[in-house]
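quick one, 249 residues, struct below
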Amino acid sequence: MKVSMPRWFYQLASPRWFYSFTGKLLPWFGLATLVFLSVGLVWGLVFAPADYQQGNSFRIIYIHVPSSILAQSCYMLMAISGAIGLIWKMKIAHIIAQVCAPIGASIAVMSLATGAIWGKPTWGAWWVWDARLTAMLVLLFLYIGVIALHAAFENKASADKAAAILALVGLVNIPIIKYSVEWWNTLHQGATFTITEKPAMPPEMWIPLLIMVLGFYCFFSVVLMGHARVELLEREKRSDWVKQLIERY
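---
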């Protein structure tokens, strides 16, 4: 049975349309990034009250939590894009998957680094082989593996296929990261806040955290679209629309 997909799905398959559409989105996401991150950082680092147990050291959550959430979301986007590329042979999907890898790896490093900074005063150690920390380290290695596969093949199609398969296999690590604090006895605390439950923190602490999460996602969108547009031009450099674009500028 043939599955009918919405019109926008097929529009995304058009390199020229994707390049034009993301060019219109970039300024708006850039502005949103500036607003959200500025408000979130100032509110969280300056005006939010100190934690009654951790004092001011808890403020690292305004970087650590958004980067940890985004590192996992980026991986899921990479895997889903890879699957779309494998099934529907969409070049744009493979490009999204490729550019997600270095961005996600950088965010995962930020998550691990800020976690270490948080862990030193909280646990008395920069690193412990905690279930969630170890799973996040595995996530970083998966990102590095996808990057290495893209670099190992001269043929773009082969590289895209191999990287997509690895990304899909690595999806099993995402629920391990999320539920590790529930499945095992770990040092890492549970979720700071969830959509389905009332936050344990007061509003003046969790609202700037939510703003920072939005800011991180907007920043990720800006970087993702920018890198995807560059990669798209590289892959489509012999296309007529790219030549026309170059002539125009």
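The chain is about 75% helix and 0% strand.
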